[in-house]
Design goal:
Elements lengths: L8 H16 L6 H8 L3 H13 L3 E4 L2 E4 L1 H12 L2 H17 L3 E7 L2 E8 L14 E3 L4 H9 L2 H10 L8
Antiparallel strand pairs: 1-2, 3-4, 4-5
Length: 169
Amino acid sequence: MQESKVAGAAAFGKFMAVLQAVADAPQPPTAAMLARDCGYPRPTVYRILAALAEQGMVTESSGAYRLGPRLMSLASKAWSQFDLRAALAPELQALRDQTGETVHLAVPAGHEMIYIDKLESPGPVRMVSRVGASVALHSSAVGKAYLAALDEPARERLLHALPMPARLP
């Protein structure tokens, strides 16, 4: 992680790392699991979780943590203000109708793409994906399309910095 010159950014970064670990966990994690995954001391993680819970960002049940209701409210407001989705809705629908396939709208975020909209195929086969999910640039259709659309110097800079973990053996 790059060191910030903004006062308080290190503490905020720890809060975000813990919050992201809660969001990314396949099952609701305990504080001990979060301390292990984030690499922070348990007392630090407990303080962060207490502050996040106080603000409604996480909830605790039987020692496990889930994302809280305040995040839903913030996310709902963010989605309603995201003009790109509304502007491209007719094109997404036309593409889905023309191809008969599920279509995604995604935006770049660092070394990933984040789905900001999805229209399901009208057919019986469904694609397992969700709005808000992130996918790797090097191993997803939207990521590869984004990379292909970049000019060569920008693409080369990004590819040199891009971690490319194998997704399959």
